[in-house]
User: Which sequence fits this backbone?
């Protein structure tokens, strides 16, 4: 009986779920029922995303660290931060973020509506008081008009601010990459080198064990033992941020914490010690540097890391023995195959 139920479930899931190991072309973006997508809401969210009023001192917007010119990341190992503080992790791209099941490198948020308030309130990101922000935006007549037309009345609340930003974020999708065309049946979509790279990605390189589905990620957390940057471990401001986040998440030993605990911070489960979420690989050529701590500047370095079987002492990966030519083909696949069509982007006019 159980078995039969399972088989029915699998059959239902097949056409929609990225099946383990199977890459999938980009299709429709999932939209939550509670926050329907309208053009006016997206436009409002876009303005808020680029508006520096969202930060306490008026110097930063979301786009400061998620810059469309940097693949919606900020191009730094460790992300930018509120003046006089330092961040502790790499800023992830927001491309394809609508497809993420877990948000943040440790998966501590799960909806974009919930997530958007974190950076605004964060002492080391935008350092804003949300009660004050609501009043600040209520003083801008254009915003009051837009909130009214989008939400039905003129109440400017943090929940609506987050809903509008989330609606905008759901439009950030990389489309029509050679991989999509290839998976949709165009056998010539990948160049000969990229095609060899694709075969390594799904074969000898074992990349598709974890990087599959639409976003090329498995919604899991893995302990790869990516090396730490000693400079960052030593930086007292980064250490303060690390201890602060750990304290907020009731990590008992936060005072003496000297490295990033990864997913453990959230679950307190020993198997999650230094486990990080598998990141999307869409538009990966434009989102360097790589890993939760930005330790690798190039895709060649990342490929070298996986080829060596990952970081010291990890049990998730094994050495791959790729030849220099194969490493090059894998890089070409990542660079060419996963880069979406250039979309025209227009900056909003901030009221
Ligand atoms: C000062 C830099 C900074 C600012 C400003 C900032 N972010 Fe981020 N953002 C980050 C960093 C760093 C992370 C990863 C943090 C972590 O994993 O612990 C992140 C993570 C995210 C994620 C999760 C993405 C993923 O794939 O898991 C989303 C979504 C996001 N930010 C949206 C926003 C929005 C919306 C704003 C504005 C309200 C914003 N960010 C402002 C640096 C910033
Ligand atoms: C066991 C699962 C697993 C396998 C197998 C795997 N990866 Fe990953 N990959 C991850 C995780 C987890 C991270 C994030 C690690 C971190 O941030 O510390 C990652 C990070 C990356 C990144 C950096 C992305 C970014 O935005 O920072 C790239 C590129 C990448 N992997 C490519 C590959 C390639 C190419 C292969 C095959 C040679 C591969 N991966 C095999 C799980 C895996």
Assistant:
């Amino acid at each position: 009986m159980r078995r039969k139920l399972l088989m029915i479930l699998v059959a239902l899931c097949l056409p929609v779920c990225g099946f383990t190991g199977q890459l999938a072309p980009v299709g429709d973006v999932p939209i939550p029922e509670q926050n329907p997508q309208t053009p006016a809401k997206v436009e409002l969210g876009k303005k808020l995303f680029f508006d520096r009023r969202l930060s306490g001192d008026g110097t930063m917007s979301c786009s400061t660290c998620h810059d469309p010119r940097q693949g919606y990341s900020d191009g730094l190992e460790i992300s930018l931060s509120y003046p006089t503080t330092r961040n502790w992790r790499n800023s992830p791209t927001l491309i394809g973020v609508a497809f993420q099941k877990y948000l943040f490198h440790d998966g501590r948020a799960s909806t974009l509506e919930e997530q958007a308030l974190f950076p605004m309130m964060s002492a080391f990101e935008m350092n804003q008081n949300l009660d004050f922000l609501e009043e600040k935006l209520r003083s801008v007549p254009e915003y009051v008009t837009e909130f009214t037309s989008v939400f039905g009345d003129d109440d400017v609340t943090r929940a609506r601010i987050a809903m509008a930003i989330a609606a905008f974020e759901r439009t950030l999708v990389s489309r029509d990459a050679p991989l999509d065309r290839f998976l949709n049946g165009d056998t010539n979509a990948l160049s000969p080198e990229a095609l060899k790279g694709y075969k390594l990605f799904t074969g000898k390189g074992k990349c598709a064990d974890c990087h599959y589905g639409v976003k090329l990620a498995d919604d899991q957390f893995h302990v790869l033992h990516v090396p730490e940057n000693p400079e960052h471990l030593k930086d007292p401001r980064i250490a303060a941020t690390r201890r602060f986040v750990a304290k907020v998440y009731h990590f008992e030993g936060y005072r003496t914490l000297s490295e990033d605990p990864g997913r453990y911070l959230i679950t307190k489960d020993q198997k999650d010690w230094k486990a990080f979420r598998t990141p999307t690989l869409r538009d990966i050529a434009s989102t360097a540097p790589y890993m939760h701590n930005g330790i690798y500047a190039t895709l060649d370095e990342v490929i070298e890391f996986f080829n060596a079987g990952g970081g010291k002492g990890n049990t998730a990966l094994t050495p791959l023995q790729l030849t220099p030519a194969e490493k090059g083909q894998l890089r070409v696949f990542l660079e060419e195959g996963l880069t979406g069509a250039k979309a025209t982007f227009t900056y909003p006019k901030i009221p």
About this structure: The pocket of heme C (ligand 1) is lined by residues 54, 60, 62, 64-66, 79-81, 87, 89, 91-92, 94, 97, 100, 103-105, 112, 115-116, 119-120, 125-126, 165 (CB under 6 Å). The mean pLDDT is 94. The longest strand covers residues 221-222.
